[in-house]
Amino acid sequence: MPKSQPRILLIYTGGTIGMIENPVSHALEPFDFTHLIDNVPKIKMLNYCIDNISFKPIDSSDMNPDHWVDITRAIEENYDRYDGFVVLHGTDTMAYTASALSFMLENLRKPVIITGSQLPIGEVRTDGEENLITAVQIAAARTPDGEPMVQEVAILFEDYLWRGNRATKRSADNFNAFKSHNYPELAKIGLGINFHEEALMRYPAGKPRPLKCHCVLDKSVMIIDIFPGIKPEILRHQLSTPGVKGVILRTYGAGNAPTASWFKETVQEAIDRGVVVLNVTQCVNGSVTRRYAASDALARAGVVSGGDMTTEAALTKMMFLFGAGYTPRQVGELLGVSLRGELTTHS
Ligand code: ASP
Prior knowledge:
The structure is a single chain. By secondary structure, the chain is an alpha/beta fold. The chain has 9 helices and 18 strands. 27% of the residues lie in helices and 21% in strands. The strands form 5 sheets. It has an 8-stranded mixed β-sheet with strand order 4-1-5-7-8-9-12-13, with helices on both faces. The radius of gyration is 21 Å and the shape is globular. The model has no long low-confidence stretch (mean pLDDT 95). The structure holds aspartic acid (ASP).
């Protein structure tokens, strides 16, 4: 039976939603949680039990894996006491945080809904009030059987709920700032909240496994974007960065890269040194394949296909896998396995 009064924990990390204008510079700066919640008096109308944890509010450009550990621990420590969690976060790195949390929270069976806004909550036309209230409602939503409707990390923004590790920030201006280009929305927000149950994460029936949190992330990873005119010495220098264990190589189209022998040889040298190289596409939609000679050569050199993973998911998945202590070979194998619904696999 659904509980009469859902218990929701708000975790405030900062972002535009809680910012106010500096009177001197007129730049937006992070501000405290009381200011934020005072601007949403309507939230009381939900009649939920809502508690909060507030971290030092930051612009999410300052977000880093240590913050992800703090958020993960806050969820872990409060997991049994709440029905759902809402993380208030800046939009700039929201998709990275959503992806990281999805890997860090194994066996998650409760909603972790991340939201923020494009306009501060104190502004007349703010999108923050609506996003916050809708996120809280989604965190409290139940199936007819009384199970949490959402059992994964998701991003709620304006009209849509997206799987967290599938979403990308696509607009610096529009209220619909996020999109998942390779996976359908989990819910469409209109007059009501229309959940798409076929897209939501569902687990086999039986006793759920307990939540397992992974709080070690390895930052020895990097992203390399290829571009026409990329110079051999620059690529070689990047791939030889001391200490780097994994590289996200962002290629063209279906995973294509220059066919010049120096390119393949440079990548091959890194792989031979034990660096894991993962191929993801610079396109927002579609997948890395071996359709062209220009992509097949990379695969033959030992580059792992990132399929249709977002860059954000690929990067945080590598941090998670290396942090968990897997060998480069195991990391390469697991990158090709969908661990939290971040990747479309064809059996
Ligand atoms: N710079 C802000 C942040 O990510 C942007 C936002 O929240 O929309 O914290």
